[in-house]
Amino acid sequence: MSTEYNSILYKYVLKHGWQNFNYGVLEYIDLDKSDSCIASKRKVLYDIEQRYLDRINPSLNINKFAGSMKGYKHNLETKNNYSKVRTGRCYKKIKGIIVRPEVSQETILRLKLHSKSLKVKIYSKDYKEIKEFNSIKNAAEYVKLSPTSVSKYIKSGKIWNGVASLGNECASYPSYYFKLESSVAENASFNLSFPLEDIVTKKTKLDNIDVSYPNYSRRAYIFEVVAENNVIYRFKSITKASEFLNISRRTLTIYSQNNKLWKDKFAFKIIKAS
């Protein structure tokens, strides 16, 4: 018998030999005549198995719950081995981002700075600074506007006329300018406006992408960022892409529909998942 396996059962077999193990059937149940679905049949078997696990409490059974690894803990050596094996790997399915390219430490630093270094400042009509906020959301709450509206005023550079809707009523406030500024030193060579500015990968070609994912619903859409016919990133949804790229869903959709290039370099593709 091979000694490469490290389970408790194999250790006992190697130590005592197969001749000291007996095979027996504790209970027989016929599910072939049942009209229940597979999930229901599986539950019946799990319930029976759990009853025997609780009654006998077999020492060779590392899982104490039928059909589940719940309660099982890996030892420290196993955890360290898992960590070493996974170090440096690029995984294809990571919470919303399906394609993960190799990135440099500089790019990683820039992505971290992107969310931590941006400040929203409010100015009066005569360009006097009124207040500074750590996020667009906080600035929007201060002036009783939505974050989307504040973002539009930041991008357009137009002055807000001070009129806001509160339920069925309108309220008047001082007119403001909104400006997005970075707290990173001026000599820092980072472009914080677009997280993927310097990312380039040639491993995944656009023409070779398989968008047939069984977990997606028929109405799901995959969003891709493409540069020079190479897929830089792929997201599970336009919303995920919008959150990561700091670009509104509407803008991403318009650029995709009109085949426009963002920053004269990046193309956005919306693909319906099959």
Automatic annotation (TrEMBL):
Domain of life: Eukaryota
Domain Nuclease-associated modular DNA-binding: from-to ranges: 119-154, 228-255
Record key words, sorted: Mitochondrion
Molecular function GO terms recorded: endonuclease activity
Pfam families: NUMOD1
Official protein name in the record: Nuclease-associated modular DNA-binding 1 domain-containing protein
